[in-house]
Amino acid sequence: MSYLGVGVSPGTVPVYHGSSLKVFDRRVRVAELVLRCLICGLALIGAVLIATDTQVKEIFTVRKKARFTDMKALVFLVASDGIAAAYSLVQAGRCTLSMIRGSVLFNKPLAWAVFSGDQVMAYLSLAAVAAATQSALFAKFGQNELQWMKICSLYGKFCNQVGEGIAASFILSITMIVLSGISAFSLFRLYGENKSKGNAR
């Protein structure tokens, strides 16, 4: 025993670090849950904005209706947003269940599954947004070399709503990249813990 703290038992140190680690893990899980809910909401907003967007225009007594199905890139984006919403909803349920049970960390197979799923969704959302953005630029500015006209000069309302949907999907893809970074951290720290345990032995 020491009055200056020199003879303090080292057994108290791991307890302090362990409690701090649990607090950090909970914060990471809360951040993950918030991001997954945000992704689910953005995916639904993007999909609904694009899928419900229509505009009828009369050109030389011929009525033409613009729909998202007229552009394959928009169909791909709506499908991607739908998959992202469903995936994020399932993962948000997993996060909520693990927080209720109090099991913050998970095993390696589950961590690999979450990491792989997040990576696939990040690449899928980026590809869909990139394709839709390129098609939207062609519709907005046309292509003189190929004699493609500016469709948005005819279907202004349709293009504006599609632009809003693409913007929501773009934010979704950025959020998905951040989330995949969190899942990578959660996965590789499991290996770090095993390494430190091995060194302790």
TrEMBL record:
Keywords: Cell membrane, Membrane, Transmembrane, Transmembrane helix. Its main location: membrane. Residues 26-173 form the Casparian strip membrane protein domain. It is found in: Cell membrane. It holds the Pfam family CASP_dom. The chain crosses the membrane at residues 33-52, 73-100, 120-141, 162-188. It is a multi-pass membrane protein. It comes from the Eukaryota. GO terms for cellular component: plasma membrane. Homodimer and heterodimers. Belongs to the Casparian strip membrane proteins (CASP) family. This is CASP-like protein.
